[in-house]
Amino acid sequence: MLTHNDNPFVGTGWAYPVGVNAIGGIAMVDGVDEIEQAMYLILATTPGERPMRPEFGCPLVDYLFDPIDATTCGRIERTVEESLQRWEPRVDITAVEVVIDPDTDGRVFIDINYVIRDTYDVRSLVFPFYLIPDHH
Fold first, then answer.
1. Taking CA atoms, which of 54, 101, 102, 103 is between 20 and 30 Å from 27?
2. CB atoms within 10 A of CB 119
3. For the chain, which residues score pLDDT lower than 70?
4. Residue 48, φ and ψ in degrees, nearest 5
5. Where do the domains of the chain lie, and which CATH numbers do they carry?
6. What long-range pairs does 58-65 form, CB within 8 A, spacing at least 24?
7. Does the reported pTM lie above 0.85?
8. Which residues are within 8 A (CB) of 84 and not within 5 positions of it... i.e. 6 or more apart?
9. Residue 112 and residue 122: Cα distance in Å, rounded?
């Protein structure tokens, strides 16, 4: 497993969600776990949510009431890729694919393929996102 000692570029950060460790301090993560938690945080944060960093995040909520079709999936893919490229400099995004979940109405899976820079460590992250289905 890649740890911060293997590559100082990756680093160490607070665990997400924020919690405490066994001795009562702030829970920390490093290596791939830290990068993936940072990516989740970007995708789960709506721009404007953080007063001191109003542009931070990914505007997935813009698609909340859009039809669940190929056009919306393509727009989500582009938005996710742009947000991660902007806010997570430790990775190169190689592909983003949105797949409609056939078993759960309104859920899509955002499959993100990325490479940790300077390591050639190819990884995949899946982020579930829920759209409000239009039932007429």
1. 54
2. 16
3. 1-21, 24, 26-30, 135-136
4. 100, -15
5. 12-130 (3.10.450.40)
6. 58/83, 58/84, 58/87, 59/83, 60/129, 63/131, 64/131, 64/132, 65/131, 65/132, 65/134
7. no
8. 39, 42, 43, 58, 91, 93, 96, 112, 114
9. 11
